[in-house]
Amino acid sequence: MSRTEETAERAGPFTTRLTWRLDDGATAVWESRRARKRGLLTVRAADAAESRSRSADRGSVRRLRRLNTLTAGSFAVGGGLFVAGAAVAQFGPVDARGAWIYFAGGLFFNAGGYAALLEAVNAPRRDSGAGALAARRWRWWRYEPGRIDWLSTFLLFVGTLVFGINLVGSLLQGLSVRQENGLVWAPDLIGCALFLVSGHLALVEVCHGRPGLRPHELGWWIVAVNQFGSALFMVSALADFTRPATGSVVNVDIANWGTLAGALCFCAGGVLQFYERP
User: Fold this and answer.
1) Is residue 278 situated within a structural domain?
2) Do 41 and 118 have their domain in common?
């Protein structure tokens, strides 16, 4: 079947929305995030009087639902554990309990980051001639840096792994100031930077170009809340630097409260993701 592509909305080299005309005169609209998260594309009748959503096949929908539940649950639980860890660090006794709570939360962030990447890897693809979404063969990994959803989720996953270095380092005892900054602070800063870049790409994807306000879209709220949380994590990381001259942290209160508030954002974003499902 033939089709004529009408428009391709891009953000730099990335395509975030495609619109094309079908053989029956109807118009199909594919959006990157909507297809990946909801398993849907939009089809408008030739007279523009009717607009309906077409879902992917049942197998793809079940797969996307499972991945969405895993992603949402992992970030909700991981964010909650980070909140608890920050609260213990701020108000509790000075011992290793907070570090172990952070470590447990980090494992959930790892799981959520990989599940988000799997969503991008296994997202149904558009069947341009039929104006529908076609299933893909399941894969645990695929290298597709030319897709904005893949790049965003890949950077998010790598960020969670880098945070893991920070969390393991925080469990070690007797570190010098140089080791503390190298094993704990530097991975924290790099992980926050990766989260911010990932969140920016997610905003670009959901806004189909320059980031802006889209308060009527659930996907925008999820991305915006998580990006705000990433910014708070970055503030916390900057405040957690240990001065070589004095051996003291720049501002421990800002470090703890920034982590707590940022983790609350990720917890809220995880809860919201339960509602952005096929």
Assistant:
1) no
2) no
The verdict on 26 and 96 lying in the same domain is no
Tokens of 55: 């879902």
Give 12's Cβ-side CA count (13 Å radius): 9
Q: Bridge partners of 53?
A: 42
pLDDT tens per residue, range 89-132: 999 876 778 889 999 999 999 999 999 999 999 988 877 666 77
| Burial readout 153-172 (b: 16 or more C-beta within 10 A, e: otherwise) | bbbbbbbbbbbbbbbebbee
